[in-house]
């Protein structure tokens, strides 16, 4: 592809998309695409994202945002061979000092510290002896940090969601393409033991052709949001202003990997609806009284946001978001195929035609010996004690392995953009009266030729 033609075409599509708001009832035509709904387990390579980069060893990291999740990542990274933490940045100086001490205790030289305000990460991004800038800051800082990292020749990794707006999704895709740097979203749920086992089942054809999936993020975060702590305050600020699915990737990422999104398949369109907004106000009233500022504050965010996505292969996905209601935690995770169905919550169950006896669910555990993902078989012991049941160790291990070997990362900027785009698109849909909204094609058509994620060993 002629680079200039490619770039002007990308920019035109982007401008058109933003101008038209991509609200349409028509969507893309289905069919006529070479869909790979089931693939061999031994695909040689995963992604045709940014050009392959030479192996980096050791991987020298600058870390931005060392609150709860930042600490979690550092604990994992310090257990992985070939990692050096060269710089740490946080707006809270005491957190930088604590992490510097932790890194020295782990046997590494004291990393450089940055705590000179909200944009001090820009100085960190200019530090020469850094290969990867990794951020676990509030959502609104992910894109600015990743953009500054790539502009300075560094690879970028960010917590979920990668981007808070559609505009940021495009900026990140364009910058990753222009600079040839990796820009990876750290979606730990893609490495969860059950989600990876389901992926392995899908790849082996156990469920047949996939038809439908259900997923979401259902987590009662009222106490955290209204705690007054900074961890809750930045999340609350989004709930005050925005109405959409603000945290879609924990459920959608694993489902997208089963459906080969951006790798022979694509999200085509969505429509979202939001319920009334009650939960935060009722909670605040009980905790702080009817006249408290927290009770009087209007909240834009619906208590329940339901999104329906259609893929190019014709599949449907429901994505549910509910962070303001009393309920147990769930990411749902249900996958229906032509030969059976599997679900994770509230209990791990499966039904496979011709194999399950009777017409009731059977425990998923009965399939573990046959379908456990090889990654988990290989590293479950090493992952013990790491955050989120070991998944945080495994996701970091995979990122570092890919960088040290110069391989494509499991997930790239196109995946991160497509999954994160649900924030902006669901807002747009709700604001437009549950209008059907088209997904932008961040890959510019290349999704048709990209190979599905292979079942990586260890
Ligand atoms: N993958 C998961 O399971 C998971 C779990 C929790 C949180 N997260 C994600 O991790 C990110 C952080 O969440 P958290 O719970 O750790 O929040 P947190 O508030 O505990 O941590 C954020 C940190 O970033 C710092 N910070 C804020 N603005 C900054 C800036 N401009 N420059 C440098 N530092 C800055 C804060 O001082 C704080 O230390 C969020 O994106 C969240 O969605 C993911």
Derived from helix and strand composition plus strand pairing, the structural class reads: alpha/beta
Shape: globular
Bound molecules: nicotinamide-adenine-dinucleotide
Strand order of the largest sheet: 14-13-12-11-7-10-9-8-15
The mean pLDDT is: 90
- Percent of residues in β-strands: 15-25%
Major sheet size, sense and barrel closure: 9 strands, mixed
- Output the radius of gyration: 22 Å
| Count of helical stretches | 16
Distance between the termini: 35 Å
According to DSSP, the number of beta strands is: 15
Outline the low-pLDDT stretches.
1-49
Proportion in helices = 25-40%
Task: Describe this protein's structure.
The protein is of the alpha/beta class. 38% of the residues lie in helices and 16% in strands. The protein is built from 16 helices and 15 strands. The protein has a 9-stranded mixed sheet. The longest helix has 19 residues, at 413-431. The radius of gyration is 22 Å and the shape is globular. The protein binds nicotinamide-adenine-dinucleotide (NAD). Nicotinamide-adenine-dinucleotide binds at residues 64-70, 89-92, 95, 118, 121, 136-139, 141, 159-160, 188, 230-231, 388.
How do the helices and strands line up, and which of them pair or pack?
Elements: H1 3-20, E1 59-64, H2 68-77, E2 83-89, H3 93-105, E3 112-114, H4 121-126, E4 132-135, H5 139-151, E5 155-158, H6 166-179, E6 183-185, H7 193-203, E7 210-218, H8 222-225, H9 230-241, H10 249-258, E8 267-274, H11 279-288, H12 293-296, E9 305-311, E10 316-322, E11 334-337, E12 340-343, E13 349-352, E14 362-363, H13 368-371, H14 374-383, H15 391-405, H16 413-431, E15 437-438
Parallel strand pairs: 1-2, 1-4, 2-3, 4-5, 5-6, 7-10
Antiparallel strand pairs: 7-11, 8-9, 8-15, 9-10, 11-12, 12-13, 13-14
Nicotinamide-adenine-dinucleotide binds next to helix 2, helix 5 and helix 9.
């Amino acid at each position: 592809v002629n680079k200039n033609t490619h770039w002007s075409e990308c920019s035109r599509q982007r401008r058109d998309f933003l101008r038209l708001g991509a609200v349409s009832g028509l969507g893309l035509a289905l069919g006529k695409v070479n869909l790979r709904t089931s693939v061999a387990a031994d695909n040689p390579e995963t992604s045709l994202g940014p050009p392959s980069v030479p192996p980096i060893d050791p991987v020298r990291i600058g870390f931005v945002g060392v609150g709860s999740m930042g600490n979690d990542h550092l604990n994992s990274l310090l257990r992985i061979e070939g990692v050096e933490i060269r710089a740490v940045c946080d707006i809270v100086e005491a957190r930088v000092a604590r992490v510097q001490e932790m890194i020295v205790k782990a046997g590494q030289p004291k990393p450089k510290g940055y705590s000179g305000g909200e944009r001090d990460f820009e100085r960190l991004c200019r530090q020469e002896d850094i290969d990867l800038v990794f951020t676990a800051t509030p959502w609104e800082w992910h894109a600015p940090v990743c953009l500054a990292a790539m502009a300075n020749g560094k690879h970028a990794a960010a917590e979920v969601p990668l981007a808070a707006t559609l505009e940021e999704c495009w900026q990140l895709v364009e910058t990753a393409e222009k600079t040839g740097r990796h820009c990876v979203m750290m979606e730990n749920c893609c490495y969860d033991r059950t989600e990876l086992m389901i992926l392995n089942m899908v790849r082996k054809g156990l469920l047949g052709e996939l038809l439908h999936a259900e997923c979401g993020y259902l987590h009662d975060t009222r106490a955290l949001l209204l705690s007054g702590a900074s961890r809750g305050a930045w999340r609350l600020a989004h709930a005050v202003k925005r109405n959409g699915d603000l945290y879609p990737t924990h459920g959608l990422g694993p489902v997208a990997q089963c459906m080969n999104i951006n790798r022979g398949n694509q999200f085509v369109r969505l429509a979202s609806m939001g319920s009334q907004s009650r939960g935060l106000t009722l909670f605040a009233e009980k905790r702080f009284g009817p006249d408290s500022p927290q009770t009087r504050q209007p909240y834009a965010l619906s208590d329940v946001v339901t999104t329906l996505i259609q893929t190019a292969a014709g599949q449907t996905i429901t994505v549910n978001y509910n962070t303001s209601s009393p309920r147990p935690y769930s990411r749902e995770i249900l996958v229906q195929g032509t030969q059976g169905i599997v679900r994770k919550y509230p209990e791990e169950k499966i039904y496979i035609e011709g194999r399950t006896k009777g017409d009731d669910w059977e425990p998923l555990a009965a399939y573990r010996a046959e379908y456990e993902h090889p990654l988990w078989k290989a590293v479950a012991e090493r992952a013990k004690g790491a955050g989120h049941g070991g998944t945080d160790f495994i996701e970091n291990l995979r990122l570092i392995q890919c960088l040290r070997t110069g391989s494509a990362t499991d997930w790239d900027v196109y995946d991160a953009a497509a999954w994160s785009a649900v924030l902006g698109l669901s807002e747009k849909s709700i604001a437009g009266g549950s209008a059907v909204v088209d997904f932008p094609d961040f890959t510019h058509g290349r999704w048709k030729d990209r190979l599905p994620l292979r079942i990586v060993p260890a």
